[in-house]
Amino acid sequence: MPMLPRIAHSTLFGLVPAIKRPLAIAKQIRGFATVEGNTPRVQPTPSRTRSTPISYDRATFTIRDGPVFNGKSFGAKSNISGEAVFTTSLVGYPESLTDPSYRGQILVFTQPLIGNYGIPSAARDENGLLRYFESPNLQAAGVVVADVAEQYSHWTAVKSLGEWCAEEGVPAVSGVDTRAIVTYLREQGSSLARITIGEEYDADQDEAFVDPEQINLVSKVSTKAPFHVSCSAGDTHVAVIDCGVKENILRSLVGRGASVTCFPYDYPIHKVAHHFDGVFISNGPGDPTHCQDTVYHLRKLMESSQVPIMGICLGHQLLALAAGARTIKLKYGNRAHNIPALDCTTGRCHITSQNHGYAVDASTLPSDWKEFFVNLNDSSNEGIVHKSRPIFGTQFHPEARGGPLDSSYLFDTYLESVARFKQGQAVFQPKRDSRPSPLLVDLLAKERVGVVPTTGMENLLRMNEAGEQATGAARAA
């Protein structure tokens, strides 16, 4: 199989020698390259192979070994399976549905009416980041609401929620009792479920439910090759481990003066960390224990480097695993924009945005770590911090595009430690320059590389098996 050509280690801060990608990826990377530096990010033309006309057929939402709810379809004519979870967020459904952390999940909204302000355009800001979405595609496997607004009104809106779901190939159901669904999920915990469009429910089909926990969902949403977001307002350079990074996390870093280079989730970051002023671990979907390579690389990083590290959501869990702690699966998770978290260092309470089904078991933290935040609803861990080094993680989302922004100061805290580290390195290495080179900026992609849009869990499982077979064949060759 053709590989990318090797380039001298110093040319690209050591990025290229560790990348061996197929020719298709190489062509995609070269397609982004130009003869000018700091070129704007250009969104690839979205594929519409999954698009269907809006279906208004009968729809069935079935919870495995649980109740069956009959409603009406308002999205794609597609049958899917996934993990049913719920969110109590009142606003921000475009941001929630494009959050990669929802990959493989059927999202049930407790807010009675969804879709009244439509879906905005894919406009981008001055840094080339999406203004209104957290990723280029709708990430949830399915959508369930009590009532959908077919007519919408907002100055940013360009289409309805139903039109968007149909374009993205995602089934959506309305006219069901979401109160009963959420009551069941709270009592029984997050459950496997199916959305069936235009067909009668068949109990024999219960065997067709697919558990997303069998799949490494992070590998589906993470970039397949590094990409770069430039910032002309500052001189710091942060490496982001992309486990499904949200656009507003990148915006929160770039807006504070940091250029960002994003790496695949399993990239050996410890081998190139000395070229950066900080390392950041993003959010992402699924069980953190699937990311053993990431955990190993983070452990090696903390052993070999003093670089500041921050993790959010899944990144926080991976940081804890690398430190030697354990994670646990919550009964039904925390997904809302109004969850109180107590700062154990100050005694202050912050209202936070959250989206996770796993948590760190704080009782397993090593002695050189301590709890940073605690959830005031269920007492689960919401943050950890190293006692003597600039390393910390939060389970909640300080960047919260849909709000609230109580904890956004944590990005300032992190980048202050990044600036101190950079200044300290300048004392010992006066000629050290961590700023990205024009060649690096120009050669790397400006957007996620090779990320396939969401699909039903059955297809994800087949894709996962095919990928494992291809990897095994490549290693054998």
Describe this structure as you would to a colleague.
- The protein has 477 residues and is α/β, with parallel strands linked by helices.
- The protein has eleven helices and 21 strands.
- The chain has a ten-stranded mixed β-sheet with strand order 12-14-13-15-16-21-20-19-17-18, sandwiched between helices. A seven-stranded mixed beta barrel has the order 1-2-10-7-4-3-11.
- A hairpin with a 4-residue loop joins strand 20 and strand 21.
- Helix 7 packs across helix 8.
- The N terminus is likely disordered.
List the helices and strands and how they pair.
Blueprint: H1 23-32, E1 58-63, E2 68-73, E3 80-87, H2 93-97, E4 105-109, E5 113-114, E6 119-120, E7 142-144, E8 147-148, E9 157-159, H3 161-168, E10 172-174, H4 178-188, E11 191-197, H5 218-221, E12 227-229, E13 236-242, H6 247-254, E14 258-264, E15 278-281, H7 292-304, E16 309-312, H8 314-323, E17 326-343, E18 349-361, E19 369-375, E20 381-386, E21 391-394, H9 409-428, H10 438-443, H11 457-476
Parallel strand pairs: 3-4, 4-7, 5-8, 7-10, 13-14, 13-15, 15-16, 16-21
Antiparallel strand pairs: 1-2, 1-11, 2-10, 3-11, 6-9, 12-14, 17-18, 17-19, 19-20, 20-21
Descriptive key words:
477 residues, ten-stranded mixed sheet, seven-stranded mixed beta barrel
Put the structure in a nutshell:
The chain has 477 residues and is α/β, with parallel strands linked by helices. It has helices at 23-32, 93-97, 161-168, 178-188, 218-221, 247-254, 292-304, 314-323, 409-428, 438-443, 457-476, and strands at residues 58-63, 68-73, 80-87, 105-109, 113-114, 119-120, 142-144, 147-148, 157-159, 172-174, 191-197, 227-229, 236-242, 258-264, 278-281, 309-312, 326-343, 349-361, 369-375, 381-386, 391-394. It has eleven helices and 21 strands.
